[in-house]
């Protein structure tokens, strides 16, 4: 992991404190600056890449614009499983689901394709956002 700077600690702490969500590098930057952190945009990008390389953060590709999102990688919580991302509030839900495991097996057996479920994110609305829209 090497030497840890104040800026790398800022980025890591932000991701840890918000481990239930994932953020773009820009969102991390604006959140840190908004809280009085002294950090440059380039430094945020560089620190996020280092955290991914060190295995302390995960990087998710998001959509057609190739934007990436980052999340703290807690080995006790985030391992090889699917993720559900709420398009309303941004919450990231870790799923342990036999049905989705069977889906991965089906894709392997029928389509000869190995799904990397640690990188798989399904988008939709969480229960809380569904209830807010019904009101």
Describe, in plain words, how this protein is organized in 3D:
With 135 residues, this protein is an alpha+beta fold. The protein has helices at residues 6-17, 25-34, 41-54, 98-111, 127-134; strands at residues 23-24, 57-62, 67-72, 83-86, 92-94, 121-124. It has a 3-stranded antiparallel sheet with strand order 1-3-2. The longest helix has 14 residues, at 41-54. The radius of gyration is 17 Å and the shape is globular.
In short:
The protein has helices at about 5-15, 25-35, 40-55, 100-110, 125-135, and strands spanning about 25, 55-60, 65-70, 85, 90-95, 120-125. It has about 140 residues and is α+β, with helices and mostly antiparallel strands.
Short descriptors:
alpha+beta, 5 helices, 135 residues, 3-stranded antiparallel beta sheet, 3-stranded mixed beta sheet
